[in-house]
Amino acid sequence: MAETRRKAILISPESCIGCRGCQTACKAWNQLPGQKTGDPANFQNPPDLAPTAFNLIRYIEMPGDAGQLRWLFVSRRCMHCGDAGCMKICTAPGALSRTKEGAVVYDQDKCIGCKLCSASCPFDVPRFDGRDKVVKCHQCHDRTAEGFLPACAKTCPTGAIRFGDRGELIATAKKAGYEKLYGETDLEGLGTLYAFRETPKTYGMIENPAVPESVVFWHRVLKPLSVIGTGAAVALSLIHYIAVPPKRDEEVKRDD
Amino acid sequence: MTDGMIRKAGVFEIVNHWAMSITFLVLGATGFGFLFHMEKMNVIFGDFNRMRTVHNWFGVAFSVLVLFKIVLYLPHVLSFDGDDVRWLLQGGGYLSKNAVVPPQGKLNAGQKLFAAVIIVAGVAMAASGFIIWLMPGVKRWLLLSQLAHNVSFDLLVFAIPIHIYLASLASPGSARIMLSGTVPLAWARKRHAKWVAALESKAAVE
After folding, report:
1. Residues A183 and A246 occupy one common structural domain
2. Do residue B142 and residue A247 have CB atoms under 8 angstroms apart?
3. Quick one: closest CA in A to B130, which residue?
4. Is A207 helix (H, G, I), strand (E, B) or coil?
5. Which of A1, B27, B137, B178 is buried most deeply by CB count within 10 Å?
6. What is the phi/psi pair of residue B46, to 5°?
7. Which residue of B has its CA nearest to A109?
8. CATH classification of B11-180, choosing from 2.30.33.40, 3.40.50.300, 1.20.950.20, 2.40.10.10?
9. Is the pLDDT of residue A44 over 50?
10. Is A108 on the interface with B (CB under 8 A)?
11. What ipTM score was computed for the predicted complex, to two decimals?
C-alpha cells in the first residue's frame, strides 16, 4: 500500500445497549470534567454535545410493534467529513487539520475563536471552551497514531463502535447485510459511518448532509474573486493609463 | 471669483479620508491573511490571534469612520440626477480624449457612485463584522454575515484600486483635494461647473 488508508469509526445502533461506556471512556482519555446537567427528559445525558462531552448516546424513544416501546441508542460525535465544512471556512491556518488517518483534528493554540466552523458544520459538532477555542471529537488521533483504538471503540463492550480501515469496515458491514452505510459517500465520505436498518431520520440523523450553500459559493466564487478583482482593478487602471492618457494641465488650461 | 484657489474639501473630510484609508489597508491586508491563511503575516502580527484582535479593533475605527462618511457624502449621493446618468453613460469622459461630459456638481457622478459603494459596502462590512465578532451563537446570522462580509470585501478590493487610480494618475490635479483641500478655480470650473456656478451666483447675491 503506497498511501495510508483512511480510518473510520463504524457505529451500529442495533448492537448498542446504551451503557454509555463510550462517553465515560472519552472523558477519561481526554481528561474532561463532569458536567452538571438538568433533569433529563429521558435517559440521554448530557442533552447535547458540549465542550466537555465530545460524544454522547442519543436515546430515541418511539412506538414499536404491538404497542411496545422502541428504544434506539445512537452514538453521536464529529463525523470527520471528507469534505469538511469546518476546515473550509476556518480563518486560522493549522487550527483545523486532517491527520493521515483522515480524522479532522484541532490545535487550540492556532484557533482564534471566530466560531465560523460551528456555522459551517452540517452536524452541529464544534463546541468552544471557556477561552472560546474549538473542542470536539478528534477520533483519539493521539491514540490511533500509536496504533491504539479510540477510547470509545476500545471500551465498547458490544462492538457497536468499531474502529478500523474505512474500506474494510464498509466491506464487513455490507457482508452483514447493510446495503448502504450512512456516510459512505456523503461529503466525500464521512469518517464516522453508521449501519442503519432504516432511514437515517429514524435515528435522528439528517438526510443528505451538505456544507451550507453560502459557504460553497463563498469558497468557489467569492474567495478567488477577491484576488481576481484586485488584480483586474490594477490591470484595468494601467491599461487605461496607457490607452487613454490623462489630459495635461496645459490642455486643461487651454480649454478654458 | 476670478482666478485663485477654491476650497473643495474641509479638514474634517480630509482627515476622515486618510484615517479610513489606513484602516482599509490594515483591514484589507489582514482580511486577505484570514482568507488565504497567509502565515507570512505573522512577521507583522505575531500570530493569528493577535491579527484577529487588530482586525477587530481597526474594524471598530472603520465603522465610526463609515458613519462620518455617511454624514459627509450621503447628501451628495442622493443628489444623483439626469446629468449624472449621462455622465456615467459616457464613462465620465475617461474613455476618449475628446469626450465632452455633462456639467457636474461638487462631486461628479463617478465620485457619487464610489461614495455609494463605500457607504453600502462599509455599512455591510461593519454590521456583519460586529455580528461575527459579538454574536456568533446564531448560526444563520453567522453564515449570512460571513457571506455579506466577503461580498463587501470583493466589492471594496475592486473599487479601491480604481478609486486610487482615478483620483491620482488618471486625473492630474485632483490628488491635492485630499492634501490641501483646495483646487484652482479654473480646474474646478471645468470639472464641477454646476458647483462653481452655484457658488458664484451665491457670491453675486451677497
Report:
1. no
2. no
3. A114
4. coil
5. B27
6. 95, -65
7. B49
8. 1.20.950.20
9. yes
10. no
11. 0.90
